[in-house]
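Holo prediction. Input below; ligand is adenosine-5'-triphosphate.
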Amino acid sequence: MTALLEVEDLRVAYGKIEAVKGISFTVEAGQVVTLIGTNGAGKTTTLRTLSGLLKPVGGSIRFNGQPLGSVPAHKIVSLGLAHSPEGRHIFPRMTIEENLLLGAFLRKDQDGIQVDVQRAYDLFPILGERRRQAAGTLSGGEQQMLAMGRALMSQPKLLMLDEPSMGLSPIMMQKIMSTIVELRDQGTTILLVEQNAQAALSLADTGHVMEIGRIVLSGTGSDLLTDESVRKAYLGED
Amino acid sequence: MHELPQNLANGLLLGATYGLIAVGYTMVYGIVQLINFAHGEIFMTGGFGALTVYLGLGSGTSMWIALPLMLVGGIVTATVIAVLAERFAYRPLRNAPRLAPLITAIGLSITLQQLVWGFYPKAKSPRVFPSLPGGPFHLGSITFQSADIFVVVAAIASMLFLAYFVQRTRTGRAMQATAQDPDTAKLMGIDTDRVIVIAFILGATFAAVAGVAHGLRYGQVSFDMGFVAGLKAFTAAVLGGIGNIYGAMLGGIVLGVAESLAAGYIEKIPGMSQFGGAAWQDVWAFVILILVLMVRPQGLLGERVADRA
Ligand SMILES: Nc1ncnc2c1ncn2[C@@H]1O[C@H](COP(=O)(O)OP(=O)(O)OP(=O)(O)O)[C@@H](O)[C@H]1O
Ligand SMILES: [Mg+2]
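Structure of the complex:
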């Protein structure tokens, strides 16, 4: 069986500087896969390349059997790949509801869209309460919820989340992580980028540790959690 | 002060024309952060496109039939030039340093002027533009012409259309999203290249309407008419808050009224007589700009830069 996402020897560069230096991994349907690693490891670069915002200089990406290398960014979401970007990037001067509807920009099924807007409000009730409020006025955690809800509005086959816990209070982080667990248990396939290795590994099926553009270690979430070198480098133990 | 209503009316009409041009500056800037200095020339080519249609129609044609056709001719000319400019001059420089597209725009502005000067028949001096029949009309102490009615109707219709387009249509929402965060707009499935082309087309359309309005009001069009008008419209866009379409129209009107009042009244202020009249009108326009920007750097309706992250 082929995986939903197959990344092979992917290389991405900014000018002459290679930020991703030949990484390979797969995501099976129904799995949660996490990429962890320190600042500047190339995690965001990898996700932005999968979304078509950056063009690879080498290697291949196959999604649902289709090569993505030359598909323009705006066509990728329609293939079933949704991306909640690092730093949330909600549309600040639009309302929460308008933000969610933009997540469904390419969908034509008005009834289905309304059902999914309601589902986002069920997942994050605070968004429903504030639906007519400008998204830029939300707190960081609320904006993160909105970014996730917006990504889900395209009914993705694969949901990519880039550092959903970044800059959040411990309580808000708990809330976001438990939502990811909830989505996982509903069968959503997720590619999760995190600096919070503890949280990410404890909910992921598979994890990959990235360092300066390479995957240096891979394993199941629980194996990596107990791995000596991971504990030292990423879980603050010595 | 019995001429005050007339001065206000003149200022409004002048300002509405500035506003129609300013909308194009502001939309393009709002989306690609490009100051399209050739936009004044798009306005000018709109006027010449309309004139060409008029000349082709034959002298017997009623203006009520000619005017719609002239508008179409002006709009087609202006949009074709704007789309070509976007595709071949600006798009290749999208990721270049900001100075490169700005210099290109200035070059394009000069090129378009020179092309019309050199190749449009008898365009080395101003060419006579037809006028609308009827008028003058009187409203209280205000006198106005048929062309003035055209300006008012065009400005109101354009703003209503724009408000509807931006807020109610799918493409309008795509345009807002692209202006706020282009990369994320792509993640939503928005073809941002297409959105940019549409912004250029809309801007050129309103500029062409303004070009026709200019021709009708002044009875002539000239190859260099886009220079001052473009500069004023750009000022109006900044005054209103660059990136904000309603601000562009408001900025245009504030500027037009301020110019008109300055031309009429400054000289009556004791000790200011030498700064009055039409000669100083442009100076006062920029004084207004500076004063407003000192109090509100973001312009009348602009958002604070921090909100635009
Ligand atoms: N736009 C850019 N231009 C040039 N270099 C860049 C750019 N974006 C990222 N880089 C470089 O590419 C490398 C990988 O960056 P990337 O953002 O992918 O890392 P990351 O793993 O997401 O880090 P973080 O955990 O801090 O978000 C870094 O060295 C970074 O400096
Ligand atoms: Mg990152």
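The pocket of magnesium ion (ligand 2) is lined by residues A 43-44, 86, 162-163 (CB under 6 Å). That is the main takeaway for now.
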